[in-house]
């Protein structure tokens, strides 16, 4: 079996745990187990009683019930499969549901497993490129020029990684209508859903409004609990559920019982945890607005609408060289766009961590030194 190296993860494997300052993390501020348990009195005892045997393969019933109750309106608990993180769920969908020779339309720039996994499987992939000059918006009319007779699915990510773009309700409805009209599956990565700066802009889960949609969720982003390694798919498409259930038998089979117990608490506390994250992101974006206004001669800044990451552009500079030199000189880690298959002018910056206001002055100081813009 051949597979394409995951460039972002290889970069993080090299730098994430050695860099002094992380300024490109995609997950928001996390917490300790005791912090999470404090949301529900008596939960510590429940964790201590958790049985360490195998769990049910689609996920603990209590967790799936809670996911359906808190996050979806038309999708039921038996239409959810819990995975060990979102990455496993993406891999399962691409391998279990699609076949070599099928064609995908994929929202890009984006998360590499949305397209590399499919390409390694023998699928053809056509990018549906976001338009940077239009605030990372998508051209809905362009979809008609991208579809082929062998197109089986459309892959989107809202709120978007890495730009923080969020379509309007009308634009989202038009995407749904296009998929329905052409009988396409819609794989909707919704791991940042719930982190909208304005809750009024929140889109419905795709699986609730389209019968052939597959919604991807995870606790890493929306709830700030990456260490639990809990992701899931929700869909009313019975054939997708059947195929992904069979394929999961060759992956983790079942999930971690302690993680599922803690995840159930987290999902019950969705409002509190997403509010905790967005309180941080709103404050940090004010700091970033000031920072980029101060350095507008060097950067183009498009403020995101949701999520925990943005994708600024450097004016007349290589993003890869800028990020490499910044890391060498200051210990601050940013993510160049070359690792996201999008030219060499942008970089990913994360604004979901509490320490951003302490890190930005280090970048400020660097930019003020001779050679700091090289």
UniProtKB/TrEMBL annotation:
<dbReference type="Pfam" id="PF00155">
    <property type="entry name" value="Aminotran_1_2"/>
</dbReference>
<keyword id="KW-0032">Aminotransferase</keyword>
<dbReference type="GO" id="GO:0008483">
    <property type="term" value="F:transaminase activity"/>
</dbReference>
<feature type="domain" description="Aminotransferase class I/classII large">
    <location>
        <begin position="41"/>
        <end position="351"/>
    </location>
</feature>
<keyword id="KW-0808">Transferase</keyword>
<dbReference type="InterPro" id="IPR015424">
    <property type="entry name" value="PyrdxlP-dep_Trfase"/>
</dbReference>
<dbReference type="GO" id="GO:0030170">
    <property type="term" value="F:pyridoxal phosphate binding"/>
</dbReference>
<protein>
    <submittedName>
        <fullName>Aspartate/methionine/tyrosine aminotransferase</fullName>
    </submittedName>
</protein>
<dbReference type="InterPro" id="IPR015422">
    <property type="entry name" value="PyrdxlP-dep_Trfase_small"/>
</dbReference>
<dbReference type="InterPro" id="IPR004839">
    <property type="entry name" value="Aminotransferase_I/II_large"/>
</dbReference>
<dbReference type="InterPro" id="IPR015421">
    <property type="entry name" value="PyrdxlP-dep_Trfase_major"/>
</dbReference>
